[in-house]
């Protein structure tokens, strides 16, 4: 196992951004930068042992300044959508950035945690830990916060993401990682032939704007049912209102049996390369996003990206949970630290 560190780029203010490459005995490599705690490359062997970079992203730091699709980003303090860009907590209303219709998406497009340089806490033989601190009122959220995130890579081809957050006031913390996977390789086009299983008997339907209604609805008998393996593209264009609202799959799935322990939540298989991705998490939900709205543009190695060339499994508390009392609480503070683990294992 080895970790290397190199300069990735320099910010306009002169701040240096570093890349860390984690490599295991199988040749699998994960490369991340401390700008946005972003996963930039992930080289995984196929059924014949050939390594391919299977995540979308950019070659240059400057391209991550925009990154409208959040390639590889660590999102926080509150991932996904908050209805009407506001919430009430302990009798007070907090106003967030209005950046997705009338709603809030991913805390702030301009100054969310994905647009900040994270400090380097430590590097071990198999891991890198990054952290940042945010003051009370930052992006509209209460509490002085400290968030730490550890990327680690095992010889079992497990990429582990571990989060820890503290706040001196009760606040919303709902971190996620927004990596887009294409198990054929980031340059390989659509992911609609990937075969997906999600261990979720229910999901949270949405209204226009993709804000959950508050209902927890069964997937059975609908195109949302991934409890048995099926190609992502099989039903994605079905005449089903929820798919039209998301322009395809962009929904939170309610993990069966979620109890805060690490459990397997999904399996993705690529028939072409033979790569398989097993996802596990301690969190109660996962946003399956089929990349419907990836904007056309140039990614790594000059590859042209566009809709559905990558897919996300964003582990999370449910969207708009702060405004939905029946959803698992994403409020953390002096009496409750935020702790979460997500593992992507390649088989």
Give the uncertain stretches in residue-range form.
none
Number of helices: 2
How are the strands of the largest sheet arranged? 11-12-13-14-31-25-24-17-22
State the end-to-end CA separation: 18 Å
Mean pLDDT comes to 97
| Form type | globular
Strand content: 35-45%
**Helical proportion, percent range:** under 10%
Radius of gyration: 19 Å
**Structural class designation:** mainly beta
Based on DSSP secondary structure assignment, what is the total number of beta strands? 31
Profile the largest sheet: 9 strands, antiparallel
Description:
3% of the residues lie in helices and 40% in strands. With 347 residues, it is mainly β. The strands form nine sheets. The chain has a nine-stranded antiparallel β-sheet, with no helix packed on it. The chain has a five-stranded antiparallel β-sheet with strand order 1-2-3-4-5, with no helix packed on it. A five-stranded antiparallel β-sheet has the order 21-18-23-26-29, with no helix packed on it. The chain is globular, with a radius of gyration of 19 Å. The model has no long low-confidence stretch (mean pLDDT 97).
Give a brief rundown of this model.
Helices cover 3% and strands 40% of the residues.
